[in-house]
Amino acid sequence: MKYAVYYWNARILIKEVDELKETIIKLLKNEGLKEVGRKPRKEL
C-alpha cells in the first residue's frame, strides 16, 4: 500500500501548489495594475 501513500501525498502537494500559483497570479495581477502607465514590466 506504499503507492496509496505516495499518491495521497502527491495530491496534497499538487493542491498546495495550485493554491500557491493562484495566490502568485493574483499578486502579479495586482502589481501589474499598479504598474500600468508608470513603466513597462520586463521582469516575469
From TrEMBL:
It comes from the Bacteria. This is Uncharacterized protein. It comes from Candidatus Kryptonium thompsonii.
